[in-house]
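FAQ: What does a ligand-bound record look like?

Like this one, built around flavin-adenine dinucleotide:
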Amino acid sequence: MNETTIANSPVIERVRHELKRRKLTVVSREQISPSMLRLVFSSDDLADFTSSAPDDHIKIFIDTGADKPEMRDYTPRSYDNEARRLTIDFALHEAGPVTAWAIGARIGDELDIGGPRGSAVLKGPKRFILIGDETALPAIGRRIEEAADGTSIISLVAVADEKDRQSFGTKAALDDHWLVRPEAASTDPSVFITALRDLPLTAETFVWIAAEAAVARAIRNYLVEERGHPLTWLKASGYWTKGKADGADKAI
Ligand SMILES: Cc1cc2nc3c(=O)[nH]c(=O)nc-3n(C[C@H](O)[C@H](O)[C@H](O)COP(=O)(O)OP(=O)(O)OC[C@H]3O[C@@H](n4cnc5c(N)ncnc54)[C@H](O)[C@@H]3O)c2cc1C
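The answer part, i.e. the structure of the complex:
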């Protein structure tokens, strides 16, 4: 890495948060699109809830009667300390314990969460390409909504149905691309790579990728190896792994 690259690299500030476990109650349930269920939770425990980056995650704990609860990562889609509310969007798919819980959740049901333990706050980039599937849509939507004036964002989101498209209020200049493919194709990276071939990839563009782990890896490899995008301007995560429970791979 040369000096210019270092000088021009984005700064990622790591912020630690006090690790707390909170008990929440479901206060609203809305099917916002065919494959996305939005639950809003309320609790006095949320008075000091903090999430400093759009791709933060909390742990959801589900008691299955085993020795330890099942734990999965979810994005705080939005939160409001004064109103003591937290919103989480659940992508619906082959149901493991958390998705099954969300599908069955009713107003008044309780959920235990932990975290976020920390946030990776990205400083510097004014241009973004945000790439992901339904599980990444909460983080992508949040980044678009929280973007400052003067930011430009291209989003590439794969969904199973035209009706799964979402719209976001933003100060950024947004060029959103919705890649409609069947859910069975959620492990095929080609829909993303075909779309990326037509997109300019200018210097100092931060590329954020989250999808099924093999898909995220293939997109990352295409951008780094074929397009020469610097690793310092890219973050790729596997938000789930086909055929594997609790299959997050956050450091691709
Ligand atoms: C940092 C981070 C943030 C995340 N944020 C969100 C979020 O805000 N909303 C959200 O919906 N998800 C989010 N995810 C993904 C979510 O944690 C996983 O999809 C998780 O596996 C779901 O748990 P589960 O108990 O339903 O299934 P698991 O018990 O983990 O898995 C059961 C089966 O379902 C399959 N499976 C898991 N996810 C999918 C999928 N998306 N499509 C098809 N099959 C799947 C697995 O391969 C496995 O065979 C996030 C993941 C990470 C790492």
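Follow-up question: can I read anything off the structure? Yes, for example: The helical segments are 3-8, 97-104, 137-146, 190-197, 213-226.
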